[in-house]
């Protein structure tokens, strides 16, 4: 018989080759190409089935209904709560607060919903207990285990019989049946596959904690993200208390939701209304500031853009920004100088956001432009005004998505006026909207705000 040819496959993207290579030729990942298992001979004989096929209208929905965990913002990111048998992958940078959040989730679950098992592969049970006492996450039905062996983890699941399992983290657990090092591609795949199989068979909600690489992507094989039901990213700046859980994939709900949290020494708290963190308080109007509304997932959030323009002593004036997309800021400055006739080539320009907010969407372009123009002219913008719009290279102001939602949030927060692009749709009754179609019209508001928003 002819021997079947060898096939080597990349664990990240599935690329195939006839010989082993150290680097994948498709995704350029190192050390991910391994020999693939030989294909089993096909068969046409009928085999057993797990369940008989049935009309779609007779399929029950109870198995796909979510159950709240008691942490409001975490439930928001999940689309309502945890689903029986669902497997969630939560990834984030070291020290961002993943373990603190999940310990709070498991404690609340153990109090309201049933037994919960928290398995840690990075700490001892005593260390987890100390954190639980500090954050108030103690519960009678919350079980702890410190294990790095997959067989031991499965044994704990058999003994405790929990309805929620948290594994912190999947990269620290290894299967004794494999000789690969802990955290390797094959080990992570085997551990995740085993836990997913147990979760589906027994209807256990399972949360896997994942590490991230230096570029922010989830470490391990990319197939891990395909196997799980929900992928969440836990984000936050070390210099800020604000933390966000961003949904990347969700088979049971929206895949664009965001949950906001406040991380402190006493634990982590949900932030149903985090807008106040991104605004500063001024008794009088200040030049170089402008308020905008950004959308995180489905949630509109107000953010403040601040700018400072100063004479430069350098041949190449400095451009520095914090919390804003550098490419978009550079584009807005070029449009402001070329189309708006604002001299910036001999001045340093500094732009920033308040409260560690990250404003990267095109809807914030107009706010950046007005803040810089206001700082350059030393003319304050009216208090209670927001600006929404994308700035084009020709100087035009373009419409943005979700305008009604953004304006409604601004009205709820007490703002009374807005600069918007033309044809932006209906405006809430509590806001006076001025349409600006070009950079020149926006600069006219900065030069003479009283004419645009007369006092009535």
TrEMBL record:
Transmembrane segments: none annotated. One of its GO terms (molecular function) is damaged DNA binding. GO terms for cellular component: cytosol. Belongs to the RecA family. RadA subfamily. A motif (RadA KNRFG motif) lies at residues 249-253. Residues 63-212 form the RecA family profile domain. GO terms for biological process: recombinational repair. The keyword Zinc-finger applies. The keyword Nuclease does not apply. Residues 348-456 are annotated as: Lon-protease-like. This is DNA repair protein RadA. CDD domains: RadA_SMS_N. Pfam families: AAA_25 (PF13481), Zn_ribbon_LapB (PF18073). The middle region has homology to RecA with ATPase motifs including the RadA KNRFG motif, while the C-terminus is homologous to Lon protease. InterPro entries: AAA+_ATPase, DNA_repair_RadA, P-loop_NTPase, RecA_ATP-bd, Ribosomal_Su5_D2-typ_SF, Ribsml_uS5_D2-typ_fold_subgr, Rubredoxin_2. It comes from Phytoactinopolyspora alkaliphila. ATP binds at residues 92-99. Keywords: ATP-binding, DNA damage, DNA repair, DNA-binding, Hydrolase, Metal-binding, Nucleotide-binding, Stress response, Zinc, Zinc-finger. Plays a role in repairing double-strand DNA breaks, probably involving stabilizing or processing branched DNA or blocked replication forks. Gene3D superfamilies: 3.30.230.10, P-loop containing nucleotide triphosphate hydrolases. HAMAP family: RadA_bact.
